[in-house]
Structures are given as C-alpha cells and as structure tokens.
Write a structure and sequence with these properties.
The chain is built from 16 helices and 11 strands. The chain is of the alpha/beta class and 328 residues long. The strands form 2 sheets. The chain has an 8-stranded parallel beta barrel, surrounded by 4 helices. It has a two-stranded antiparallel sheet with strand order 10-11.
C-alpha cells in the first residue's frame, strides 16, 4: 500500500516535509489546503504554499474554495509546479471552512453544482496536459456526508466524481460532525474500492502505528493506500516504521535535534508571520512522545519567539535526558 501524508492546515508544509524526508519520506505529500482565491489574488504569503523543493515529484496540491471558477483557475497555477496531481478538498468539516461553502459543504450542495466544480478543475488539468504533455491526476478527498447520510446519497456523490474523471478518492469514513472517539467506518472504504476498480481509493483516519495500520488494511484490503495525518505530526518517522515493520523498535533518533532542525526549517521555508503558529501546531503533537508531554507542549505554546523555543527544547531534554533518545 502507498503511504501518504495527509493535508493538514499549518502542518503539511515544506518544513515538515523536510522532516519526514529525513526518515526516507513517503509516497505522496498532500499540501495543506491552498485557498484558491488567495492564490489567484497573489497574496504575500502564498509563495510558501507552493514550495516543493524537498520532494517535487511527490507533490499533490490540495485546493479549497467555495467557488468553482477559482478552483479551476488555481488548478492551472499549481499544475505549473508539477508533481503528481491536484486534489479538491470536499471533506474538511471545520466550522469555519464549512460555513464559507468550502470543504464538506460541497457534499451538501446540489449534486449538479458540485459536478460543475469538479468538471472545471478536470478541464483545467486537461488543458495543462494538452499544452505541456504533462498529465496531473485529479483526486478528491471527502467524508461520508452529513449526519443524515445514506449509502445512496454517498454513492450518488462518488458516481458523479467517477463520471467527471476523478482518478483517486480519499475517504475519511466519518460524518461531518463525528469526532475521533470511535474508529472510522473502514468497511465503506472497501465498498468504495470494490465499486470503482479503476479508481485508486485511499483510506484515511486513525492510523497510529503498525497494528492500527494492519487492522485498517484488513478491513479494506482493496484500498491502495493509507493516508496519515495527526500521527505523522507526532511521529514523522511513522512512514518509515510502516514501510519497514521488521525494523520497528531497533532504531533511535535524537529527539532534541529533530526539534531544533524543524525550527530551522520553518525559518527557512515559512514567512516570519507564520513561524509562531507553525511551531505551536507541530509541537502540540510532537511533545506527546515524551514523559511530561503536556508540560513540554505548554512550554512550547508559551515560547516568546524562535530562540526562546530553542532554549525551552534544550532545557527540557537537559532535565529529562532519558527522553532525548527515542526508540522507533
């Protein structure tokens, strides 16, 4: 199965990809959501969303918008950066995204309206291929739908995607409001894969380690990949673990060095205005690996600037030296 980094706002950026690549990388990197209207308006920070130096051949550009026309126009821009393809976010359930008409809102709009949005992006990619000879895959990431979803409504939606030439589905098999207390309905991923044998189907949700990956794969054996989100932020080495399970528990990493290297990469890849939020988000996950993880995460949340963050990292591992070397 392919191993794929999920699109995570403020996490799936170039600096984080560098961190994952140091462990051997993964098969595909989905970018964090790129807001199509902002990209078209050439906002001052948009360059950072288009960085792809660490693994240009593995990139999937994920677009979000409530407007079909901006999605198509943005697809032409990101297509020029190459990579594997373009993904439309139709699954984000964050209220601030849904309320604008983006993300999972596309699953709740009239089907023909959503069809036109997908068709516009596909036509843009076809235009790019005609002009350059470079084919970029069209994919869509989605959920099951709203709380009142039915298999009929779900498959009406996916049938439409198939008819419009979508080549890869990523399913996070939860409803709009379902949280993480229970496992996703992995059996729906299997049903999706069996229904569309010519479309790649990727399973997303609750892959935390080797046993959970094996369990998910056992319930959706026809899925062609696993997409990992929060666990990748906590353990950037998870892809290496899953690709080489026989070596699990035999290697060590310097957790302090990883943290300090990440700060340096953020400084190199991200606008200064983004530094604080990118560090806070990453360390909220990464600190979970350690004995006093909540304390460590709080310390990082309260850091005044990057140098203060470095000092707090060094101080923590000086006090908790046993935490510095992580076996994986």
């Amino acid at each position: 199965m392919k191993l794929i980094l999920a699109p995570m706002a403020t996490v799936s950026h170039e600096a984080f990809r560098r961190t994952v690549e140091r462990f051997g990388g993964c098969d595909e990197y989905f970018t964090e959501m790129i807001h199509a209207p902002s990209l078209l308006h050439k906002g001052p920070f948009e360059y950072s969303y288009l960085m792809n130096q660490s693994a240009p051949e593995k990139m999937v550009w994920q677009l979000t918008s409530s407007d079909a026309e901006s999605l198509a126009q943005a697809a032409l821009i990101v297509a020029q950066k190459g990579g594997i393809g373009v993904d439309i976010n139709m699954g984000c359930s964050a209220p601030q995204i849904y309320k604008t008409g983006a993300g999972i809102a596309w699953m709740t709009k009239p089907l023909e309206q959503t069809r036109l949005a997908v068709r516009g992006v596909k036509q843009a990619l076809n235009q790019h291929e005609k002009e350059t000879g470079n084919h970029l895959r069209l994919s869509v990431k989605f959920r099951l739908g709203k709380e009142d979803w039915t298999e009929k409504s779900f498959f009406d939606f996916t049938d439409m995607l198939s008819e419009e030439g979508v080549e890869l589905f990523t399913l996070h098999a939860r409803t709009q409001k379902e949280k993480y207390r229970t496992l996703p309905r992995y059996q729906m991923v299997e049903q999706l894969a069996l229904r569309y044998p010519d479309i790649q189907v990727i399973l997303n949700g609750c892959i935390q380690d080797i046993p959970s990956a094996q369990y998910a794969a056992s319930l959706a054996p026809h899925a062609q990949g696993l997409m990992i989100a929060r666990t990748a932020a906590q353990k950037p080495w998870i892809f290496a673990q899953l690709s080489q399970p026989d070596l699990a528990g035999t290697r060590k990493l310097d957790a302090q060095k990883l943290a300090l290297d990440f700060i340096a990469d953020v400084e190199d890849c991200q606008p200064k205005e983004f530094h604080k939020t990118r560090l806070q988000r990453f360390f909220s996950y990464y600190c979970q690996n350690f004995t006093f993880g909540h304390y460590f995460a709080t310390q990082m949340l309260n850091a005044k600037d990057n140098d203060d963050s470095r000092n707090r990292i060094t101080d923590y591992f000086t006090r908790q030296s046993d935490d510095r070397w992580v076996t994986w």
